[in-house]
Amino acid sequence: PFASCSNQEELATGSYPSDNLIRVTAGVNNDMTRGDEATTALTKDFSLTVVNNTNDKYSYANEIFSLSGGTEWTCSNKLLWQNLTTPVEIVALYPATDANIFSGVYSKENKSYGTITYGVNSNQSTSDEADDLLLYHNARFVPKNDLKEEKLDIQFNHAFCRVDIVVTIGSEFNATNGLAKNPIQGIRVEGTKIAADINLASAPPTITAKGDATSIIPTQGDFTPAASATDQAVARYSCIVIPQTADLNIVLHTSDKEYEWTGTQMALESGKQYTLQLNMTKKSTTARKFILRERK
């Protein structure tokens, strides 16, 4: 998909593409969904900011792009490159759930970037695309060198991180014919702050968690039943978390008991995926492994 935005003002000479229009494609680096979600293309609006420090006429703040007809990104205002050699700085944020959520990204009046506050939902039992903030930043974009097939190719990165929880359920929960239904009736991820200040003046932008630690209810994923008395069932969960250093705790409860796994202080980094593998028996919950890997 691409976006085509024109302008009635005079065109700069020597520009490329020849009509000087800013056209946009958009995708995601290391795309990875959570829980029971299927991988989907970007469909929500996003915010684009282009800063031209040479000529403010060609600077644009928080321009909202929408997917039209499922194939073409469009914006209501008209955007132009100044020419093919003048560098610009570009920031894009997804999803723009309304036109003002990213309004503090850049002030054309003050010619300065700002800090925006963004967060994740505490209840992620139903997945919400807005939790997974996507960010693109290019401090020096030169159209002549960086356009791809006459388009600005925005490849977003995950601003936050993802925590997957894989619970292997002890066979003592099984009947003689196994375990068909997940005995875990509730789960909470505790110990993380769910809001952040994102400073877009730094390169790359910095993310600082803020507020009090708040429980998160994660998205439930697949449940693998136990087929026999000795097999072990597996339950999977996932949530989006603000990057921060935190004491991560997992609380599980069945119909008659609560289980808690308490972790040590750990650094949760932007764009990373963490998998916590737990064993749950009727007596305790223990960690087998905590794995860090790039989201992909």
Q: Describe it for me?
A:
The radius of gyration is 23 Å and the shape is elongated. It contains one helix and 21 strands. The longest helix is centred in the middle third of the chain and has 4 residues, at 143-146. The protein has an eight-stranded mixed barrel with strand order 1-2-11-10-6-3-4-5. The chain has a five-stranded mixed sheet with strand order 16-17-12-20-21, with no helix packed on it. A three-stranded antiparallel sheet has the order 9-14-15, with no helix packed on it. By secondary structure, it is mainly beta. Strand 16 (219-224) and strand 17 (233-241) form a beta hairpin.
SSE map:
Blueprint: E1 2-5, E2 22-28, E3 46-51, E4 60-68, E5 72-75, E6 88-94, E7 106-107, E8 112-113, E9 115-119, E10 134-141, H1 143-146, E11 152-158, E12 161-169, E13 186-190, E14 193-199, E15 206-213, E16 219-224, E17 233-241, E18 244-253, E19 258-268, E20 272-280, E21 285-294
Parallel strand pairs: 1-5, 2-11, 12-20
Antiparallel strand pairs: 1-2, 3-4, 3-6, 4-5, 6-10, 7-8, 9-14, 10-11, 12-17, 13-18, 14-15, 16-17, 18-19, 20-21
